[in-house]
């Protein structure tokens, strides 16, 4: 009975030894054939994930820089628009002042011309009145005196009459 056990135990040890050697060879083959490609694939995936994270950080930084540039450009545009509006207001004010000054100058010129025209018309009216007064005076004097006045007498009479009107 023990002999059977001895054979079985030697057989079991030989089988175990065979299985252990096969397992070691199998592990060595798996290491050569499968483990290296799997490790390479895992390393490539880790590198890709790391690159993607770096790329995402770079893209985020670029987006932040671009947003800052846009904010700066917008602020600059607002500043330029404000300065343009202020400049336009100043130019409008200057034009308004210039137009008002020209209008006042033109109005003064028109007033002066009107005064000159009025004075001229007044002088013409006075001359016309003198002539009419002279004619009427001569007629009246002729009828009263029944004679014709000489030109010098007529002038003297008119001048004395006009001086009396002026006072």
UniProtKB/TrEMBL annotation:
Record keyword Transport present: yes
Feature: compositional bias, Basic and acidic residues: 60-81
One GO cellular component term noted in the UniProt record for this chain: proton-transporting ATP synthase complex
The keyword Cell membrane is assigned to this record: yes
GO molecular function, one term: proton-transporting ATP synthase activity, rotational mechanism
Principal place of residence: membrane
Subcellular location: Cell membrane; Endomembrane system
Protein's membrane topology: Single-pass membrane protein
InterPro entries, per database record: ATP_synth_B-like_membr_sf, ATP_synth_b/b'su_bac/chlpt, ATP_synth_F0_bsu_bac, ATP_synthase_B_chain
This protein's UniProt keywords: ATP synthesis, Cell membrane, CF(0), Hydrogen ion transport, Ion transport, Membrane, Transmembrane, Transmembrane helix, Transport
CDD domains in the record: ATP-synt_Fo_b (cd06503)
Transmembrane segment boundaries: 16-35
Region (Disordered): 60-106
Function: F(1)F(0) ATP synthase produces ATP from ADP in the presence of a proton or sodium gradient. F-type ATPases consist of two structural domains, F(1) containing the extramembraneous catalytic core and F(0) containing the membrane proton channel, linked together by a central stalk and a peripheral stalk. During catalysis, ATP synthesis in the catalytic domain of F(1) is coupled via a rotary mechanism of the central stalk subunits to proton translocation. Component of the F(0) channel, it forms part of the peripheral stalk, linking F(1) to F(0).
Family recorded in the similarity comment: Belongs to the ATPase B chain family.
PANTHER family: ATP SYNTHASE SUBUNIT B, ATP SYNTHASE SUBUNIT B', CHLOROPLASTIC
Subunit structure of this chain's protein: F-type ATPases have 2 components, F(1) - the catalytic core - and F(0) - the membrane proton channel. F(1) has five subunits: alpha(3), beta(3), gamma(1), delta(1), epsilon(1). F(0) has three main subunits: a(1), b(2) and c(10-14). The alpha and beta chains form an alternating ring which encloses part of the gamma chain. F(1) is attached to F(0) by a central stalk formed by the gamma and epsilon chains, while a peripheral stalk is formed by the delta and b chains.
Cited HAMAP family: ATP_synth_b_bprime
Protein name stated in the entry: ATP synthase subunit b
């Amino acid at each position: 009975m023990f002999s059977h056990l001895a054979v079985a135990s030697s057989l079991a040890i030989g089988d175990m030894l065979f299985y252990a050697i096969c397992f070691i060879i199998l592990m060595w083959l798996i290491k050569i054939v499968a483990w290296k490609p799997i490790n390479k694939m895992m390393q490539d995936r880790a590198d890709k994930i790391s690159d993607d994270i770096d790329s995402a950080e770079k893209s985020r930084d670029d987006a932040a820089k671009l947003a800052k540039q846009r904010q700066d450009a917008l602020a600059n545009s607002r500043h330029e628009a404000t300065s343009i509006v202020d400049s336009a207001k100043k130019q409008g004010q200057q034009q308004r002042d210039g137009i008002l000054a020209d209008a006042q100058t033109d109005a003064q010129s028109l007033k002066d011309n009107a005064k000159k025209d009025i004075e001229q018309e007044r002088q013409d009216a006075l001359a016309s009145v003198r002539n009419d007064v002279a004619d009427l005076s001569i007629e009246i004097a002729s009828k009263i005196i029944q004679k014709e006045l000489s030109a010098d007498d007529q002038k003297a009479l008119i001048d004395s009459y006009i001086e009396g009107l002026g006072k």
